[in-house]
Design goal:
By secondary structure, the chain is of the alpha/beta class. The protein has helices at residues 20-28, 40-43, 50-60, 74-82, 93-102, and strands at 12-14, 37-39, 68-71, 86-89. It is globular and about 40 Å long. The relative contact order is 0.15. The model has no long low-confidence stretch (mean pLDDT 84).
Length: 107
């Protein structure tokens, strides 16, 4: 049920408080679709801190350049870029599909 797209693996970073993650999971069952989640209150780091993205990169065993962070808030993208990730501001599904296609992530 995970959402692999070609060679991509999709996960999430969540900025929330302790206890809220269980409520979100119970309601949306995101773990059914996403193989990994990093939660700010569990790792002790928050967006846009580059250290959060460095933590994710290390935990996943990936090189920073292999990771893309998509967010609606430009200031959150800054931290990802400082950690060597590519950043995309979400401006709608069509724009995201176009950007991922130009990056070679989608056919």
């Amino acid at each position: 049920q995970f959402l692999p797209i070609g060679e991509m693996e999709i996960g999430e970073t969540v900025q929330t408080f302790q206890g809220n993650t269980k409520r979100i999971e119970a309601k949306l069952a995101l773990s059914t679709y996403l193989p990994w989640t990093f939660v700010s209150c569990e790792v002790g780091l928050r967006k846009p801190d580059a250290a959060l993205f460095e933590h994710c990169t290390q935990a996943l065993g990936r090189a920073p350049g292999e990771s893309i962070f998509v967010a609606d808030q430009p200031h959150n993208i800054t931290g990802a870029q400082e950690a060597g990730w590519q950043g995309i501001q979400f401006r709608g599904a069509a724009d995201l599909r176009d950007r991922l296609t130009r990056l070679g992530m989608l056919p």
